[in-house]
Structures are given as structure tokens and as C-alpha cells.
Design brief:
With 248 residues, this protein is mainly α. The chain is built from eleven helices and two strands. The chain has a two-stranded antiparallel sheet.
């Protein structure tokens, strides 16, 4: 995508300060996840590298969306077929459920030794460091906007699915590292408020899996669960629409 140089400079500087100042705030301000003594760099690094691995493996087959917000953003930008949207959403949620279940089985003895249900739930899904519906929704939206807008600037390969018309469906294997870095920096810079789901499937699927576990006193916090669904979908939609406008 090419833009007018003045617009490009404005957007580039805004992104630089959003993420750069965001890092300062996440590390320095009270009650963010990064300031509470948690291994935040380890967590964000692992998620970034996890995205890298997942994108690298699946890119040539599906475009490696892995996220309903990215699928929706690509669709609104005219880079994905509306007819494939429901099946992609379902596949992403089911995959998130299965992956979180495998992680649970890997650490099942340790889950049995952990009595704090908030800690257990936190290994499956996200929650706000400070509960504030409006601000939590904005945090998820702005983080996902950055992810989807960056993904739209990276997308490249042509993929044929079930004999349908060849289209620009998503990310290629060579784009795995850049998108992993994007997720990494979003977590470090903007993730300290809500744990940065920035992916409805990543939060809803594991939350549902947690609800299904045979544990006493479990609390999936469903009253919050709509925020990491609606926020990312809105942020991804806005990213797709703005990308389309700038590309005109």
C-alpha cells in the first residue's frame, strides 16, 4: 500500500509514539501487568514467537489468520471471501480450545497443585488489571487495530481454497517473523491493561475450555468475556476500513 508521504509520516510517527510511550506507561505506571512483578517480557516474547511458529506452519494452506479480527479485517479490506468467514471463525475457536486443552494436559499435575482459581483462569484467558469496561474495551480495540493494520500491510500470498478464485488470503511463510514481532511489541507496549487478547478466538475458546474443566470453585468471569470479543472485532474492522480508504 502506498500513501501520500505526509499521511505516511503522520501515521508512522503516531504508531511510533503509541507503542514507544505505551512501553513507558506499561513499565512505569501502577497496577499494569508489567509493573506487578510478573515476567511480562517472557510472556510477551512467548506469544510473539508462538504466532511466528503458527503462521510459518499454516501460511501456505490458509493464509494463517489465526484470529477472527484479522479474518474480518481482511474481508472488509476486500482481501478475503465473505463466504469463508464463518468456517474460519469456527476453526479458530475450536483450535484455540484444543490448544489450551493440550497445554492443560501438559501441566495437569501443576494445575492440581494450584488452588488460586484466578491464577488458573489467567493461564487460559485474559482479564483486566483494573476493571473499567470502557477503557478495557478501548485497550483491546487499539491493540487489535495495530495488529490488523500491520497484517494488512504485510499480506502477500495467493492461495486457492476448495477450487475458489485465487485471492490474496493472508500471510505468507516469510511474513511469519514480522507478524510475530508485531504481536510481541503490542504486548510489551499496550498489553498491560487487559493482558492483550487482541483475538476473540484466543480468549473465548480457552475460556470455554476452562469452564468445562472438572475443577471446584472455578469462575470463568463471563461478565468480562464479551470485551476481548467485541473490542478486537471492532478494532479489526476499523483497521480494515481505514486501510481501504488509505489505499484508494
Amino acid at each position: 500500500m502506498t500513501m501520500h508521504p505526509y499521511i505516511a509520516e503522520f501515521i508512522g510517527t503516531a504508531i511510533l509514539l503509541l507503542l514507544g510511550a505505551g512501553v513507558n506507561a506499561n513499565v512505569s505506571l501502577k497496577k499494569t501487568y508489567a509493573s506487578q512483578g510478573s515476567p511480562w517480557v517472557l510472556i510477551t516474547s512467548a506469544w510473539g514467537f508462538a504466532v511466528f511458529v503458527a503462521v510459518f506452519i499454516t501460511a501456505q494452506s490458509s493464509g494463517a489468520h489465526l484470529n477472527p479480527a484479522i479474518t474480518l479485517g481482511l474481508t472488509l479490506a476486500g482481501k478475503f471471501s465473505w463466504s469463508l468467514l464463518p468456517a474460519y471463525f469456527l476453526s479458530q475457536v475450536l483450535g484455540a480450545m484444543f490448544g489450551s486443552w493440550l497445554a492443560y494436559l501438559t501441566y495437569i499435575d501443576h494445575y492440581r497443585q494450584t488452588q488460586d482459581e484466578a491464577t488458573v483462569r489467567g493461564t487460559f484467558c485474559t482479564g483486566p488489571a483494573i476493571k473499567n469496561t470502557k477503557n478495557n474495551l478501548f485497550s483491546e480495540g487499539i491493540g487489535t487495530f495495530m495488529l490488523v493494520f500491520a497484517a494488512l500491510c504485510i499480506v502477500g500470498p495467493n492461495i486457492e481454497i476448495n477450487g475458489s478464485e485465487v485471492q490474496n488470503f493472508g500471510l505468507g511463510a516469510l511474513d511469519a517473523l514480522p507478524i510475530g514481532i508485531v504481536v510481541w511489541v503490542i504486548g510489551i507496549a499496550l498489553g498491560g491493561t487487559t493482558g492483550y487478547a487482541i483475538n476473540p478466538a484466543r480468549d473465548f475458546g480457552p475460556r470455554l475450555m476452562y469452564q468445562m474443566l472438572p475443577r471446584k470453585n472455578k469462575n470463568a468471569n463471563w461478565s468480562y468475556s464479551w470485551i476481548p470479543i467485541v473490542g478486537p472485532l471492532v478494532g479489526g474492522s476499523i483497521a480494515g476500513l481505514i486501510f481501504t480508504l488509505l489505499a484508494l
